[in-house]
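Incident review: delayed structure delivery

Summary: a single-chain prediction request sat in the queue longer than the usual turnaround. Root cause was a stuck worker, restarted by the on-call engineer. No data loss occurred. The affected request and its eventual output are reproduced below so the record is complete for anyone auditing the incident later.

Affected input:
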Amino acid sequence: MNNIDNDQPNEYFKNIFFFWKHFNAFTSSEFSRESMSLEDRKKYSIFLLFGGDKDYFELGSILQDTQLKLKNSGNSQVTVSELIQPYLDYGKPISFDVKAIARSVIQPIIKSIALVLLTVFIVSIFTKGFEGFSLSLPFFIPAAFFILICMKYLKLVNIVSKQIIKYDSLKDSGLTSKSQLKQPLFQWLSSNMEGFNRGKIENYLTEVYLAEKNIEDEKLEYIAFKYTSVVSSSKDRNGKTTYETDTYRGILLPCSGLGKLAISPDKKVKSKLTEWTTVSQDFNKRFNIWCDQEMDASKLLSPATIADIEKFDNVLGSLNIFTSPSGDICLLFKADFEEKKSQGKLSLSEPLAFLTSLNEDNSSPTLTHVLNLIMKLMAQINVDKPNPIRDFINDLPEENQPNFKPGRIQAEGENAVERFFSVMPQLMEDMKKAKESKK
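Output delivered after worker restart:
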């Protein structure tokens, strides 16, 4: 669909009717997590429906396609060059002009406001109230949706640039996002290791990554994750609840060699295992130690290992060391393993310079520190070879998901209206599936 001539009044009403007739398609065009053909995206673009610039629509489509590639690139096979190539091929400025966007907004907004005021005025004459506002919603919502998309376009170049930077940083560190493992991995950690119940309100994983790294000619396949505990809540004068959270990064290496053990400086960590102390009084003041078998603790915590743990604790911050009953090693710490690449003034607005900047390797030093410590721990307990990561993942508990539960749908966007529209396609699809399952 090309730009529509909105000069004729009857064309505006046709557009409004077309929007509501295909409401789900319009929300999917802008917010769906699934790929949509270019023709369908044109047909159901609220931006084009109200006369937006076709070049801006094309650029917006390229940016949204990049976001979909990033969301669906769980195997990290997409290269940064492949992500940026469409912007090099575009051949036009990678930016949205505020004045041009504003000009496309003015006409439909004026019409919508006029219809809203007219509806409210007419109804108020007969009802002596303002019930007419609800009758004006069919005109108000499409215009609000259109404004939202225009605002989204203005921010999209910067947002996608940051997303590419994060993706490239993860690739440099060998991290591949595996969000589907968040719940089953947390269930396993809670059942097999100490230290994952410190939150008084809630505990959960926010990110999970699979990774591999060569350290001292040894290939380590491991799991990296972010663990958050909600430790307290409070209400302000307006009754709004705020939560205090405590966030750690974690590395899990499936292996064997020890029984269940916990070493933690965090006073919120409690354990029913046997308390144990080392010969180092300074270490005992800093860390609490629990073990299932005292022989395991004495085997691990040699004077050399104690010195290593103290050294890496200063580097990583609040270092926790846990082992499962089968000997899997988990480290929790405060340092961020997602290396921050400095965006500076470079972004997709200068695609070639942006690509050149991202091509510089920038692997995470935090991960290097953690894996070096793990190698030292493995040597101390005589672990010859870690267990296969694939076997560990296959043994994780399965997540039981109900057929339909709206609360599980993840809203996206930077404001309430954008998050509302983002859940609509998935919400309607899930409701349809739930209805069909009852038949």
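Verification: The chain has a mean pLDDT of 81.
Action items: add queue-age alerting; document worker restart procedure.
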